[in-house]
Amino acid sequence: MTTFADNFWGPKNNGYFTLYHNMKHGHTSTKELIDFLRESCTVAENYSKLLTKLGKLAGNTPQVGTFGPFWNVIKTFIEKLSSLQMQLVHTWADLIKDMVRYNEEQHKRHKTMKENEQGTLDAVQTIQQTTTAVSK
């Protein structure tokens, strides 16, 4: 019967280091995602402001001629679109706060895990050194 341990450790006993590497770089990946979301939030906020400006321009256009009712439709549409963009910005801001909290907790847990699993790291390194020495 094949077990997880047989498949995980493999011939070079790199399973522990793979898990550790992923855990270690999880903090960096989360930080990069937070930075991306912040930049996206800034872009969406600027877009919303520009839409508001465009809506004011459409509202200030003279309501004469056959396009008079059309300008009202455009103004209403742009105002709603601007409002939706601002809602998106607020939603992303809340998401960013949650991601920052998660990143801080992840960093604390990484430190705790590193301290708690130091014995496992030492044992894995000993196994790898022994395996290398035996093969030589």
TrEMBL record:
GO terms for biological process: clathrin coat assembly; clathrin-dependent endocytosis. Keywords: Coiled coil. Pfam families: FCH. This is F-BAR domain-containing protein. It comes from Candidula unifasciata. The keyword Coiled coil applies. Residues 2-136 form the F-BAR domain. One of its GO terms (cellular component) is clathrin-coated vesicle. SMART domains: FCH. Gene3D superfamilies: Arfaptin homology (AH) domain/BAR domain. InterPro entries: AH/BAR_dom_sf, F_BAR_dom, FCH_dom. It comes from the Eukaryota.
